[in-house]
């Protein structure tokens, strides 16, 4: 049966038609619905980006207000869900918790699981965008043994999230607007990235008719891996391991050595063979955050900038078209915002949820889509006879 195309890793197979996100990897271009990522990140905000990804166009003032109002109305999660969290070991990884609690939403919100009903789907979309920050913050609070903090609907999306993560009952907590703006921008940069592994997972799960919460849980599981959403954690660990500027040449040497499995984390990308446009914005956001929290002299930033400078001038990296990707600076930035590394991928999942749900909706509405069912090239045993266990 050799008539199937063999394409492991899907490097040359388009699985769908999509009008959501455009990437030109050679030119280093990323557009959401036609808008350059840097214009959205510099001039817009995350909920506007959500509206854009879901509906196809930027909202008018009234549409935006209505959308924000609807998201805000759904920020609370059912009180019973808190028992889900407390069922976990107290040192559970927050991503393990997220896979479970997001999947569990389908057991709580029966009025938004019918995928053939447009109203159900729209409510599910809003619920997911609204509840992800609440669930992510609860996973964090649980992991550090602090009480859950309820959402505050007078705050905007990113500020409310920081509040739920960092406020404690015993003292006053005021969200720093510079940090909230940085958080919001990080969400915009991660909102969608066309048919990456986790998005493809969501589509494949959804192609069977599974409910949207279950599909997003599948996407979160896929995102967890270090080659995907876990790379920012790996990049920060690497910078910490390098530790000081004088040790950079040693690590560059290792990255180039064919016999050494070490890779420069936060460098290289399957699609971008040029500077990842998100990396530039992340670098700028990183500087702003470090200045604001008074960590301008963070030695990790010096290591990162020098590493980038040397790699961009090194023949090996030039020839293989390896540039910093979005994860190179996000680790330092998230650390400065106060998050432990175990939360990094959770933040990515929070932001990517809108992309997953927009792609899922596009698939549901596409009459050409059918259940995803790849074929294989079988290279196992040919037919043979069963032998009873006594004679084996
Ligand atoms: N450091 C050193 N060499 C590298 C690196 C790196 N970071 N990335 C790729 N190479 C080399 C690789 O050894 C190979 O060399 P050769 O052709 O001589 O065998 C060549 O470049 C092509 O690499 P590949 O692994 O075949 O390319 P890929 O498209 O399968 O992998 C990647 C892309 C992102 C997995 C890879 O570049 C990598 O492992 N980077 C480090 C991890 C990372 O930063 N991941 C985040 C990706 S962006 C965010 C996300 O998707 O979640």
From TrEMBL:
Pathway: Carbohydrate metabolism; tricarboxylic acid cycle; isocitrate from oxaloacetate: step 1/2
Catalytic reaction(s) noted: oxaloacetate + acetyl-CoA + H2O = citrate + CoA + H(+)
GO (cellular component) term, any one: cytoplasm
Protein name: Citrate synthase
Keyword Transferase: yes
Single GO MF descriptor: citrate synthase activity
Pfam families reported in the protein's UniProt record: Citrate_synt
GO BP, one annotated term: tricarboxylic acid cycle
Organism: Faunimonas pinastri
Gene3D superfamilies (UniProt xref): 2.20.28.60, Citrate Synthase, domain 1 (1.10.580.10), Cytochrome P450-Terp, domain 2 (1.10.230.10)
Family: Belongs to the citrate synthase family.
Domain of life: Bacteria
CDD domains linked: EcCS_like
PANTHER family recorded: CITRATE SYNTHASE (PTHR42871:SF1)
Keyword line: Transferase, Tricarboxylic acid cycle
Residue positions of the active site: 269, 327
Annotated SUPFAM superfamilies: Citrate synthase
